[in-house]
Structures are given as C-alpha cells and as structure tokens.
Design a protein that fits this description.
Elements (H helix, E strand, L loop, with lengths): L13 H6 L8 H8 L8 H9 L7 H4 L7 E2 L19 E5 L2 E5 L26 H13 L5 E5 L8 H12 L6 E6 L1 H4 L6 H10 L4 E6 L8 H12 L3 E7 L8 H13 L3 E6 L14 H12 L9 E5 L6 E3 L5 E5 L2 E5 L5 E5 L9 E2 L1
Parallel strand pairs: 3-4, 4-5, 5-6, 6-7, 7-8, 8-9
Antiparallel strand pairs: 1-14, 2-3, 9-10, 11-12, 12-13
C-alpha cells in the first residue's frame, strides 16, 4: 500500500524561490509584487524536474514567476473565458447545454504562471464550502439536460480521499448524469499524491464512465514517477485525455509538441485539446499570434499520426466558448486582426495582443 505524505518543501513565497535558486536578488522586488496578486506554488517534484533539465526552460517558465507578469495589456481580462457570465450558482459554469463545469476547489498543487483562472485560485481565495457544493449539486439534479459533469477548480484531485469519494457518490447517483470528467495537473505536478488508496476510491466510487484530462505542456515534464502514475490511472479503467496550452517560449515549436503528444499516446493518453493562450492578465509574454499558432499546428499535423492530433482551439474572450482554429473559423482582416466564428455561427472580432508590440500598463 502506498502512503502519501504532504509536500513539506512546497515553494510558495519569493523567499522560497530564492532559497531554491530559482530567482536572484535582482528579481526579488518584482516577484514579491507579483506574489501579492497571484499565487506561487511549486512542489518538490517540479523543482526536481527543473533541476534535472538545467538547459531547458520548458518546465521552469511554467511555474517560476517573471517580471513580465507585472504588465497588463488593454485586452486582458480577469475572467478571460467568461466563466462568470455562465454561472447560475456559485461553482457551476453552464456554457453548453449538455455539460457543466463544477469548480469543487479553489486551490491547486502548483500555480501555473499562464493560468486563465489565476484571479480565482490560490490560498487567498476562500475554499468551496459544503453549502456551496450542495447548491451546485442541487442545480445539476434539477437540470436533466446535463449529461456530463466536468470537475475542475482549482484541481479536484487535491481533495481528500473521503471528499472525492463522497462527491463521486453524489454525482453518480444522478440518473441523467452519464459521464464524469476530471481536469487535473496532479499526475504531472505531484504524482505521489495518487496513492493506491486514492486510485481505489476513484475506481470504486465512480460508477459512470470516468474521463481524466491530464494537463501536460512539455516532454520534460515526464519522469518515471509521472509515467507510472499515468499507467496506474489507465489500469483502474479511467479514460485518459490530455490538454496542452500553446505557450511562447515553452512549447511553440512543432518538434516539442511532436515529442509531447507521442509520449502521451504511448502512455494511453489521447491528446484532446491544444489551447491557444488566453487573455489572462499578466500573461502576454506567453502569447503568440493566431497565424503563428496555425503554422505550428499545420506543421505538426504533417509530422505525427492522427492518434496524436489534438484539436487546436481558441476560447473566444468574453465567454462565447471554444472554436476550432482553422481556415473555416478564422478569417484575417488585416495584420493581427481577425473575425472568429463561435459554435452558434456568431462572428466576433479578435486582435493579437503580444508582449513585444502591445501597449502596456502597470497592474
């Protein structure tokens, strides 16, 4: 039986980053200012991955704050994908008719620097209460069109065995809910958390088809512990998918994505989404243009098996949902200016907003 011990060495402050050698004296003031607004969080596992690949920034840039986070651009939003506009009760996002997002926690094992919910997660945000969770469950029960429930947050797999088990019991008792999906970074960021006992709870309590979407962005995120944890999830019968953010400086190269998606498929994980970066505040240094993204994706599709192909998608700012990024949905009007079409056929303006040419203002 495997036993999980909470990470006593988790990095959560600028001082922790200094002690770990991840930032220097000259960075401290900027990082301290960033920490007052956005959560910092790296597990010992992530630190080990960074140290194991000192010549690669592929892992480091995802977790270690940069001064660029202090700058915002005019089109950046606190809620870039419009969760709040589609939230009938706290914790529920009902954007599409047959499925809901259920935000069951406000914390994560790590805090990604590009996170589109960075204004909503972290230790400074109140945890989800039992009353809020019960009201969200009542909403799901009262709406029979809800076929799929997507657990998110925060990261649902930071819930204790007891809490995740009780939640799955409640959801699986709702007759019209046919599929449970969990989005998580835990297998990549804190793999030892998914002990034999935790996996047993997932297997026994989820009596509906269980889909686990693993968030993975770079091939250097994999080591023996990560791979074994993913294999364990497959062995309990979970259907495994992946979600990747396309990030400037991290993975904006077809060769990197090729290695990543092939690795995932060999671990029985189907690449599901490749997300164009969202307009979250303080993240312009991670963004690239839609044109560059489409060129990378086009190159990628010519190099890898169809098994490895994710859907390249854009969450239209303002809460209008995802749209595939291809010639049928994106029309460039002039350099950096586009018309994008959502799933209802509605058209929206979109402007590239890049860190090297966008007007900036201090937070």
């Amino acid at each position: 039986m495997s036993i999980y011990s909470p990470d006593k060495q988790k990095i959560t402050t600028p001082h922790d980053l200094m002690r770990a050698g991840l930032i220097w004296d000259g960075d401290f003031a900027a990082i301290e200012a960033i920490s007052e607004r956005y959560a910092i969080g790296l597990t010992q596992h992530i630190l080990d991955l960074i140290n194991a690949n000192p010549k690669s920034e592929g892992v480091r840039l995802q977790y270690v704050p940069q001064e660029a986070e202090l700058y915002t651009t005019p089109t950046e939003l606190e809620d870039p994908i419009g969760d709040n506009a589609h939230s009938p009760v706290k914790g529920i996002v009902h954007r599409y008719p047959d499925r809901v997002l259920f935000k069951v926690v406000s914390g994560c094992p790590v805090y990604c620097r590009f996170c589109f919910r960075r204004e909503m997660v972290g230790p400074s945000h109140a945890p989800v209460t039992k009353e809020e969770r019960d009201k969200a469950l009542d909403y799901i029960r009262a709406n029979p069109e809800i076929w799929e429930v997507i657990l998110t947050g925060g990261d649902p797999l930071i819930l204790s065995e007891r809490k995740i088990g009780a939640l799955l019991d409640e959801l699986c008792a709702i007759e019209h809910v046919k599929v449970i999906r969990i989005h998580t970074r835990v297998p990549m960021a804190d793999p030892k958390r998914l002990t034999d006992d935790y996996l047993k709870i997932l297997k026994e309590k989820c009596t509906k088809p269980l889909y686990i979407v693993i968030h993975a962005n770079h091939p250097n995120e994999f080591n023996d512990a990560v791979e074994q944890t993913i294999k364990n999830l497959h062995e309990i019968g979970a259907n495994l998918l992946s979600q990747t953010a396309l990030l400037h400086g991290v993975n904006d190269h077809a060769g990197i994505l090729e290695r990543l998606f092939r690795k995932l498929v060999t671990l029985n994980v189907k690449p599901y989404y490749l997300h164009h970066p969202d307009m979250a505040k303080g993240t312009s240094h991670f963004r690239l243009s839609l044109t560059d993204g489409m060129n990378i994706y086009r190159t990628l599709l010519g190099r890898i098996s169809g098994l490895c192909h994710p859907a390249y998608v854009l969450d239209i700012p303002g809460g209008y949902g995802k749209t595939p990024i291809n010639a049928n949905y994106i029309v460039e009007l002039k350099s950096g200016h586009y018309i994008v079409e959502d799933y209802f056929g509605r058209k929206h303006n979109y402007v590239d907003d890049l860190s090297d040419n966008a007007a900036r203002s201090d937070i």
